[in-house]
Amino acid sequence: MKRRHFLLTASTLAATAVAGTACTTRNSESGSGGEDYPTKDITLIVQAKAGGGSDLASRALATAMEPIIGRSIIVENRPGASGSTAMLHVKSQPADGYVIGFGPVEIAMLGSMNYDIKPADYDLLGQIMLGPGVLSVPADSPYNTLPEFVAGAKEKEVTVANSGAGSIWELTGSSLAQMTGAQIKPVPFDGGAPAVAAVLGNQVDAAASGVNEVKQNLADGKLKVLAIFHAERHPELKDVPTAKEQGVDLEIGGWGGIYAPKGLPEAVRKKLEDAIKKAVESESYQKTITASGNLVVYKDAAAFTEFASAEAERFAKLIGS
């Protein structure tokens, strides 16, 4: 009996030692504290289809980040449900730094639209771009300034196209209406480009969109841009005054940044933050974003977290009103 008991005990100890060694090996390989992160490729989830502004910014950042972080960054598109499909997927992943996401402005909006998504659910790692909103009208429109448009909309309801129900551009129109008393009827389309096409076809009175959707048609004289909803004039639209210059203190646009599941190890978080900052500062990234009509705007993790939280509060008031 004693010998049998000894053999069982020895066997148990040996198994425990093997399991402990295997566990230690796995921890070492995965870098449980993140010191050796990354040990494998990283996936960057994008909430939109390939070819759009979010996808373009994500791929430009991934390309610039790869030599910095030393691993491939695989961009994966998961469109659907106003971006919530991608955001909920990232939220459900392990907080190990191997799945991150491009966080559009909607990450601060969806919580006010009955989605289980808010900025505080994630580790926000840095803002990387901003696409200021603009208001455009047909070239033969009677409106030449934002005040003229608002005055006309107070007398008669106007139609303003946007990139979809619940989008930042729909909210741009409703914000303008709320601030000025203009009667604005939103007309949703499947994206900013179709919304601007509706303006070109005189199907609507105006469109709220990003700069990229209007700059070529503005240069060709096919439409007029009445205002840009940003603190400063856009470098590619220098003749277009800001809304504030015209008496409407409204700043709104389609910003984006990088986020991860909540609770990243500190070492992982720092490596990602540093790599994102260096990538945004790279010539290749800045050239791509500038060419798209967007602005290179960087905020570090702390500033981005504060900004997104403030935006969520602002949108909650606008959407709830």
From TrEMBL:
Signal peptide extent: 1-19
The keyword ATP-binding is annotated on this UniProt entry: no
Classification via InterPro entries: BUG (IPR005064), Bug_dom1 (IPR042100)
Pfam families xref list: TctC
Source superkingdom: Bacteria
Keywords, comma-separated and alphabetical: Signal
Residue stretches spanning the membrane: none
Family listed: Belongs to the UPF0065 (bug) family.
Protein name: Tripartite tricarboxylate transporter substrate binding protein
